[in-house]
Design goal:
Layout lengths: L25 H6 L3 H10 L2 H4 L3 H15 L6 H21 L4 H17 L6 H17 L4 H13 L8 H14 L4 H13 L3 H13 L8 H19 L1
Length: 239
């Protein structure tokens, strides 16, 4: 499942994440709504038998990530989902360190939880995120969500925390090459071009998004990204 990685404004703050073993909280799943909730509850009913199965853990961490992405939920419920997802992904890493998806899901859940808290932690936590995204790309250089996440981190981090605008653009380009159908990554690439006043390149990426066949089962976030692309294209053409 493609991660709709949220754009994050990285600022210096403090976030303390206590290390612990994986914890499956049934209450968290029951407090969340929608189809993902049902899938999660089904998986959690198997937790005692599969707690040492990394594939199982990754499915759970991915579902928690998707649940956290649902902006129709209360912020506290979204944060709970991300924090549980990070714990589950961390356990998967312990069981199978050489798994790119495990490292990515840990970083994506942890970073998203921090974003909802209104801060992006200390430099140490930022380095932890970069370490796991980098490790994911060492294991799979074509992991599109990790490429997207790394691109946005480098784009939005201040220079003294490792931000690098040139490298950011390279990672975002690699993300859409690895997964040409990833509308969110391509939208972020278009925004990066706009930021650099490269209107022609931005329009090219926006047109690519809008030329993709409309999927009736597209997620809410994919529909939102498509609508944003439509609005950005109109804005650029009218400027």
């Amino acid at each position: 499942m493609v991660r709709r990685w949220s754009s994050i404004l990285f600022v210096l703050g403090f976030l303390l994440v206590e290390p612990s073993d994986v914890v499956f909280r049934q209450a968290t799943a029951e407090s969340l709504m929608g189809g993902d909730q049902h899938q999660l509850q089904v998986l959690l009913s198997q937790k005692n038998d599969r707690v040492f199965d990394p594939d199982f853990l990754l499915r759970v961490a991915d579902l928690y990530l998707d649940l956290g992405d649902d902006d129709s939920l209360a912020t506290s419920k979204r944060r709970d989902a991300y924090e549980e997802g990070a714990k589950v992904a961390r356990q998967a890493i312990k069981l199978r360190e050489q798994d790119a998806q495990a490292h990515y899901l840990y970083a994506a859940n942890l970073g998203s939880a921090a974003q909802l808290k209104g801060m992006m932690a200390s430099a140490l936590t930022i380095q932890d995120l970069k370490h796991h995204v980098t490790r994911a790309l060492e294991l799979n250089p074509h992991h599109a969500p990790a490429l997207h996440m790394m691109g946005m981190m480098l784009e939005e981090l201040p220079w003294f925390l490792g931000g690098d605008a040139n490298s950011a653009l390279t990672y975002l380009r690699r993300a859409v090459i690895s997964d040409p159908k990833d509308c969110h990554a391509r939208l972020d690439l278009a925004k990066a071009y706009i930021k650099r006043k490269d209107q022609n390149s931005a329009l090219r990426e926006l047109e690519t998004i809008l030329q993709q066949p409309h999927q009736p089962d597209a997620s809410i976030s994919d529909k939102r990204h498509r609508e944003e692309a439509l609005q950005l294209r109109a804005s650029l053409k009218n400027s």
